[in-house]
Amino acid sequence: MERHTIEPRPDWQKTVEEQGLIYPLTRYPDDSLRPYWDESAYYSFSLPEVEALENVVEELHAMCLAAAAHIVEQDRFADLGITDARLAALIAESWRRRAEQPSLYGRFDLRYDGSGSPAKMLEYNADTPTSLVEAASPQWFWMEERFPGADQWNSLHERLVDAWRRQAELLPPGPVHFAHSEADELGEDLMTVAYLQETAEQAGLATEALSVEQIGWDTLSGRFVDQHLRFIRGCFKLYPWEWLATDEFGPYVLDTYDQGGGSGTTCWIEPLWKMLLSNKALLAILWELFPEHPNLLPAYLDGPRELAETTGFAAKPLLGREGAGVSLHTPGGDPFTPAEGERYVYQGLAPLPDFDGNRVVLGAWVVEEEAAGLGIRESAGPVTDEYARFLPHVIL
Hints:
Layout: E1 2-5, H1 12-18, E2 25-27, E3 33-35, E4 41-45, H2 47-73, H3 85-96, E5 105-111, E6 120-125, H4 132-136, H5 138-146, H6 156-167, E7 176-180, H7 188-202, E8 207-211, E9 216-218, E10 223-225, E11 234-237, H8 241-244, H9 250-255, E12 267-269, H10 281-289, E13 299-300, E14 313-317, E15 327-329, E16 344-348, E17 354-355, E18 358-367, E19 370-379, E20 389-391, E21 393-395
Parallel strand pairs: 4-21, 7-8, 7-11, 11-12
Antiparallel strand pairs: 1-4, 2-3, 5-6, 5-18, 9-10, 13-16, 14-15, 14-16, 17-18, 18-19, 19-20
Helix pairs in contact: 2-10, 6-7
């Protein structure tokens, strides 16, 4: 793994916008606009390196499924902050009937520097992962233009289309609705959902787009309806389950949740059991089940334990996104004081590798059960946050 600088294409912004990346710039606190899509540099990998990372990702995914089974079997929902008995029971039933419910994709965030040391799992977003559009399309077209004849760890598009095609029989009749939130001002959620809708259409599915805010509740039929008052039987939502299950319409969502086989009236994608994988308490349960695994970092729920004096630790809110609320603590530092009402996982500190002053994290994609692609984000600081940049990669 190496970082290389390169001259950006003269028309790069227009090009990537036409390829679906309508948010190529990020607005910083000083009101300046700087590239989010950053092709002034790229990363290269060897083929054996990528093949090894693929194996790591698929092993980690299998371990996460084992951890989900453990949570359900041992009734450890409270460790995830899930204290509502009804919600826990529905998640458990969703897990037991997961073969009957469509499930598409997820993204591992990994620490990896190419030095020969093992990749380390930082977290797993298996419910509402973004940065998909840029990983699947613009970086592939960038490679074809700049490095014709090279390769890329990127079979995302083909695998997504195939996944919809294979899982079509699990979907209820009628169009699959694709919902994003209007609260997203950048357009990232909108384009992620639009891209996934496109892959579903290429698989032969009928689709319909709407926003989460446009979803209605028909009191007469007791069913969710779209903006045209048609029943919503199947819906992909880029809207976290912890919001969907607890907002104003949460009780209706749980009342009508389709576990498969016509058990309810609305089939949601991703399914409810994905709450087990997108909660960062998973990191501590993995360490408990697979202690000293080379691709895991030590992690605990009851405090940093020995990490406070040995490696240091990262305190991560169980449901935080884009680095929100994450704090890093070096060995022997001041005691950490949790924010009121917040629950954390305490993970061994593993500073992101520094390439020419850039801190890099690998986003490794899983479609169904298989490793499917790579997206790379860089940040100036030690936490990958909303100001991170996306850089393309090639296999040389």
